[in-house]
Amino acid sequence: MKNLKVIAFDADDTLFINETYFDETEKKFCALMEDYLSHQGISQQLFKVEIDNLKLYGYGIKGYILSMIEAAMNISNNTIPIEIIEKIVQYGKELLEKPIVLLDGVEETLAALHGKYKLVVATKGDLLDQRRKLHDSGLGHYFHHIEVMSDKQEVDYSDLIRRLEIQPDEFFMIGNSLKSDVLPVLAIGGHAVHIPFHTTWAHEKVDHKIVHEKFWAYEKITDVLKSLE
Hints:
- The chain is α/β, with parallel strands linked by helices.
- 46% of the residues lie in helices and 12% in strands.
- The chain has helices spanning 19-32, 39-57, 61-75, 82-96, 106-113, 127-137, 154-163, 178-187, 224-227, and strands at residues 6-9, 118-124, 145-149, 171-175, 191-194, 215-217.
- Helix 1 crosses helix 2 and helix 3 runs antiparallel to helix 4 (82-96).
- The radius of gyration is 19 Å and the shape is elongated.
- The chain starts with 5 loop residues before the first strand and ends with a helix.
- The mean pLDDT is 91.
């Protein structure tokens, strides 16, 4: 930890609320399509389409909108009326315009670390949307660098560390996803902290316990400061 130079933060559900809005939109989508299938069945169909489309659309709201439309077509056997498509597009636009709500302790933590370490954002999703959210959050001045990744695999973190001109053990990642923010960072020799959010997308869940000398798990983001004292 003495060699630490860069502290990276995930954005969605680490700095500000995100998955809550997706959950709300999915419930509206299920209600919209309930004449065709049960809500559980609709959610399962949507999730399958989302996962199949990740390789084409990547992560983010725009891909989610297209996946909702495709799922609606599949569920209805291509008989969905245009009014339903219009409603789905509306839901997507509403999702893109959701207010930015900072999570408890975020600004306090950033203020405490700013100036002591190089702070960066390492997140994935749609570039335009993520930059909008960071701008609207008012947190931009804390960060030296903003990296919007197409994915968060070992190679993506290795590329980021190379661009930052540091070694893996000089990198410290903080995020809410064990799959995206913790495991790949540990695999390349970095440090990682897990701060859980109350809801997690099924694709990001990990069902095994992580034990590693460079891993910490805390309930709230301000607890990270204890590791850095």
